[in-house]
Amino acid sequence: MFQNIISTIKKGFSFLKLSHKGSFDINPYRDWLILIILMLVVGVLLVTIAVYLFVIINTDEGANIETVGALRSEVVHVDALKEVLKLFKEKEILFQELFSNRPEIIDPSL
Question: Which domain does 35 fall in, by range?
Fold first, then answer.
């Protein structure tokens, strides 16, 4: 039973064994054949997916987005915004102080 299955699989993949020994040695013709077939399969798959998406988008099936309720509006919390702006202002002041007064750094190699 399993011998029949294995022999069928070997016969199916016999085109990959383009050598006289029947082993899977390095063979540039076989390798290029595998690469070309693989790229063709991938190309056909990508084109099929692209056409499928194109058809779905053009038939408006992909645009069935329902709006539920009224549009939401973002609420800005004024207190939190003022706090963040205050922190940025303090950071700017500290940055300007660092430019005007050089910090004293002790050289650790001395």
Answer: 2-62+74-100
What residue type is assigned to position 77 of the chain?
H
Query: Distance of alpha carbon 105 from its chain centroid, rounded?
Result: 46
Is 93 within the bounds of a domain? yes
Q: pLDDT (tens digit, 9 = 90+) per residue, 16-64? A: 665 555 566 777 887 888 899 999 999 999 999 999 988 888 886 655 6
Q: Which two tokens stand for residue 93?
A: 């002041």
What is the distance in angstroms between the CA of the first residue and the CA of the last residue of the chain?
Answer: 84
Q: With H, G, I as helix, E, B as strand and everything else as coil, classify residue 61.
A: coil
Residue type (1 letter), 5: I
pTM of the model: 0.39
Residue 105 within a domain: no
